[in-house]
Structure to design on (377 residues):
């Protein structure tokens, strides 16, 4: 640009030759770059991308535009970068982006041809799973079983593994159910622990319990009814223990020998005895009660003298069956005969003496009669 001064008639004229002034170059604005993470926070392994948004980047064909990325586990491709979050520990991270433009090989050399950006995100630690535990039924008889159910969840839907333990008895199960057996467990409370673990080694536990009831007490021992012996065959000796009674009484003795702490009770009975036909009798007739008592005493005597049973273990009683018999009973320790067999009466053995099974045979000596011949004359 230059000025020409013309003087004419006192006037000064200034003329500008615009055509001769050099044309100014238009200055390009500097480029800008902003970055944005796809999520502000994630869990390890979740997808994460960072996107770069440029401003004032040249669109001329002879201008190259180059992007680059930096940061932990970052892979860039143009305006987008991908982060491999599975390899990242929980914490805060930054991904940086850069853009350059310019002629090939000279990108970013001039001012305004380069810009940077940054995007922040957080990797959160995995949350542990949660679990609850229940039992059904919660009250067991000794040796019975209960179904244990575990209800677990992972906030991040991680795969879960279950395990179980019990303070008594035994438990088996690998899924979300298990079976508790109380076999061998003492009465009382069994505590069951349900455990769950995810694939990141985070775990949780919960407990439940079942009550094993004490077994009911065993029933009290009862009097055992053994065989009976009959007295209908020998009408002349209605109280005698005959040979046919021996098989029964041998069995009674064997039971007593096998159970040394048990007692024996022999109960004599008698059918009604009809009253005498005449008022005068040469000897005393026994009553039915006396016959019954004598039969019982004779039965005890056989067991003591023939089978060697201690007399103190045998009680003698009379009953009311109305039959000509003696009933034999084994009374285990702890049993009460009068409760099990009511209606009998103890015999006073001091007034009833045992009779031998085979009475002593009396031998009679006969004198030979003398023979006298008639006198002759």
């Amino acid at each position: 640009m230059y000025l020409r001064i013309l003087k004419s008639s006192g006037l000064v004229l200034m003329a500008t030759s615009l055509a001769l002034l050099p044309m100014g170059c238009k200055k390009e604005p500097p480029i800008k770059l902003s970055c944005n993470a796809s999520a502000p926070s994630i869990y390890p392994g979740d997808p994460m991308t960072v996107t770069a948004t440029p401003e004032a980047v040249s669109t001329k064909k002879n201008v190259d535009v180059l992007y680059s990325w930096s940061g932990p586990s970052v892979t860039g491709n143009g305006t987008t970068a991908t982060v491999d979050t599975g390899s990242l520990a929980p914490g805060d991270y930054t991904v940086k982006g850069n853009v350059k433009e310019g002629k090939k090989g000279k990108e970013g050399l001039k001012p305004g041809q380069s810009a940077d950006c940054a995007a922040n995100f957080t990797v959160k630690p995995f949350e542990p799973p949660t679990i609850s535990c229940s039992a059904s039924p919660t009250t067991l008889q000794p040796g019975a079983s209960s179904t244990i159910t575990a209800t677990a969840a992972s906030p991040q839907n991680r795969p879960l593994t279950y395990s179980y333990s019990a303070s008594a008895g035994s438990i088996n199960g690998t899924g979300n159910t298990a079976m508790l057996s109380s076999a061998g467990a003492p009465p009382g409370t069994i505590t069951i622990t349900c455990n769950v673990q995810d694939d990141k080694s985070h775990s949780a536990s919960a407990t439940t319990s079942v009550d094993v009831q004490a077994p009911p007490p065993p029933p009290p021992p009862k009097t055992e009814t053994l065989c009976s012996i009959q007295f209908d065959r020998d009408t002349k000796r209605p109280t005698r223990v005959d040979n046919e009674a021996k098989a029964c009484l041998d069995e009674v003795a064997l039971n007593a020998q096998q159970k040394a702490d048990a007692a024996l009770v022999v109960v004599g009975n008698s059918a009604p005895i009809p009253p005498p036909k005449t008022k005068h009798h040469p000897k005393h007739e026994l009553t039915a009660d006396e016959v019954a008592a004598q039969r019982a005493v004779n039965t005890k005597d056989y067991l003591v003298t023939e089978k060697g049973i201690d007399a103190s273990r045998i009680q003698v009683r009379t009953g009311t069956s109305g039959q000509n018999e003696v009933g034999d009973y084994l009374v285990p320790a702890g049993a009460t005969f009068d409760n099990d067999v009511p209606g009998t009466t103890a015999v006073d053995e001091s007034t009833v003496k045992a009779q031998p099974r085979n009475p002593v045979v009396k031998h009679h000596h006969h004198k030979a009669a003398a023979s006298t011949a008639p006198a002759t004359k």
